[in-house]
Design a protein that fits this description.
By secondary structure, this protein is mainly alpha-helical. It has two domains: about 70 residues, Winged helix-like DNA-binding domain superfamily/Winged helix DNA-binding domain (Arc Repressor Mutant, subunit A), CATH 1.10.10.10; about 55 residues. A three-stranded antiparallel beta sheet has the order 1-3-2. Helix 1 packs across helix 4 and helix 5 packs antiparallel against helix 6. It starts with a helix and ends with a helix.
Length: about 140
């Protein structure tokens, strides 16, 4: 877990997952040992849309995006860019396999080969489903 997600998880915990609760960002960073980087960390987290500034100095509120990201990080879900890359590679690999299987089927049609092609197409459908969930 990187620094940003560690701090986000702490904000989530301290706010009890409520968007309306104001949290002392400075105090959290002091306790975690990152206070010297408060401006950089706050800037990054605000840019990501995870937190918003409060009317008090060094106080923030978690956003609904921050809550979702904190829950995702707590589950240990890989970041979406790695999941997308993995699924893209699987999609290309499966598509190549289907091309080869289709050529073999065209040369000598059989029910077994057709079933293998259908199975691979079904797996591609699952990969595309995961990609559509992860791609904006």
């Amino acid at each position: 877990m990187d620094v940003y997600h560690k701090i986000l998880a702490r904000i989530y915990k301290d706010s009890a997952g409520q968007e309306t609760v104001r949290v002392d960002f400075g105090e959290i960073l002091k306790q975690e040992g990152f206070f010297p980087s408060i401006e950089q960390i706050a800037s990054h987290m605000i840019k990501e849309g995870w937190i918003t500034d409060s009317d008090r100095v060094h106080h923030v509120q978690i956003t609904h995006w921050g809550i979702a990201e904190a829950k995702k990080a707590a589950k240990g879900v890989p970041d979406s860019s790695k999941a997308i890359e993995k699924d893209c590679n699987a999609l290309v690999s499966r598509a190549k396999e289907i091309t080869v299987m289709s050529e073999e089927f065209a040369g000598a049609p059989s029910k077994k080969k057709l079933n293998e092609i259908e199975k691979s197409i079904s797996e591609i459908g699952k990969v595309i489903g995961r990609l559509s969930d992860n791609v904006n």
